[in-house]
Amino acid sequence: MTKALRSVTITALIGVAMLLGMPGTASAAPATASAAPTTVGYDVSYPQCGTTLPRDRAFGVVGVNGGLSTRGNPCLAAQLTWAWGSSAAVPAQPRAQVYLNTANPGEVRSQVTTWPKTGLTPYGGCDGSNSTACSWQYGWERAQYSVSSFFTPAAREARVDGRPSSYTWWLDVETMNTWQSGSTDALARNRATLEGMTAYLSAAGGRVGVYSTGQQFAQIVGIVPATSTLAGQDSWLAGGTSLAGAQSACLKAALVPGGRVTLSQYVYGSLDRNQSCV
After folding, report:
1. Quick one: which of 82, 103, 137, 237 has the fewest CB in 10 Å?
2. pTM of the prediction?
3. Cα→Cα distances 8→3, 5, 13, 15, Å
4. What DSSP string describes 152-212?
5. 240 within some domain
6. What's the farthest any 2 CA atoms get from each other in the chain?
7. Does 2 fall in a domain?
């Protein structure tokens, strides 16, 4: 480019700049308004340790356990901090929620060290046998252990609210865990375990809900009677593969009588996302 052409070009640019700055003339485009916060929630646990979690989230549900009720999530403190940093863009969903792994190893109790030997329950006294009473006691003790051994220390480390009453506690009910099977009595014992967990968490002031699919829940606990402490609890439905599917799931029947579906999960990419149904 020659010196003369550069001079003409610079002069023209100065003129354009002056024109843009004059009243009544065009000016720079206004900054676009910031995007509205997402209404999507995410659930995370030990498989997400060491990964980057979504910055834009309406709420977070964090797994307290590391796959089994006897293990803790090693990233629980960090993930609780992340959950409490959610936007709360969905008023009906608490920004930080938690879930517990569940199971009933009564049929293989000789292979575990956590099966109870004693305890007074709504089903009578536990004597260490594979009974409904001991199943209930097992659930109570597993919830107590998870709260005191994993959740409370992690909340203290994260410097977030450590009161169980400040959280919704979801009971993660899946066939991949150890459950009793083969009879209606076995299903009743499984149900008693969840009732024991519910009793402990409710006594601590927590809100309790059930996470599962309709098929898995029916296979594990059978029909929940209206007299069960599980009746009336909220449902979080799993199994969705798209947002549209999750929205449709919000219209399905709750997992327990008298309950309502308040959350629906769907998998997108490498993370579990959640649609609020309320």
Report:
1. 82
2. 0.87
3. 9, 5, 9, 11
4. HHHHHHHTS---GGGSEEEEE--TTS----SSHHHHHHHHHHHHHHHHHHHHTT-EEEEEE
5. no
6. 101
7. no
Query: Quick one: which of 74, 48, 71 has its CA closest to 177?
Result: 71
Q: How many CA atoms lie within 13 A of 121 on its CB side?
A: 30
Q: Chain centroid to CA 259: how far?
A: 18
Total number of domains in the chain? 1
Does 5 reside within a domain? no
- Domain interval for residue 61: 37-233
Q: pLDDT, tens digit, for every residue of 82-133?
A: 999 999 999 999 999 999 999 999 999 999 999 999 999 999 999 999 999 9
- H or E segment to which residue 42 belongs: strand 41-44
In angstroms, rounded to a whole number, what is the distance separating the alpha carbons of residues 247 and 25?
Answer: 48
In a domain, 278, yes or no: no
* CATH at residue 209: 3.20.20
**What is the Cα 243 distance to its own chain's centre?**
17
Instruction: Please tell me the total number of residues recorded for the chain in this structure.
Output: 278
